[in-house]
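Researcher: Please predict.
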Amino acid sequence: MAWVALFFAGVFEVGWAIGLKYTDGFTRLWPTLGTAAAIVASMVLLGLAVRHLPIGTAYAVWTGIGTVGTAILGIALLGEPAGAARLACIGLIVAGIVGLKILTPA
């Protein structure tokens, strides 16, 4: 269950990271409220996950999911570059997340 909470914490991290782009410096009400809600949800779920997972592993996986998801959505939604080297680096982050999951009991 801790891994499920951690996964969704990472998904909400992606939500708030992408949401920041749409807040226009926190001048737009609804994107700002959505971003704030995603931040709270992400932190609550991360807090639940670290009750059962090592903090180093949980934090690395949480930021990794956020990094990969945000980079992919940046490419898909915001027209950010998707060069081979960038995609390969994203792949390395995914490999690190998978490695930590495999090597961490819970």
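Model: The chain has four helices and no strands.
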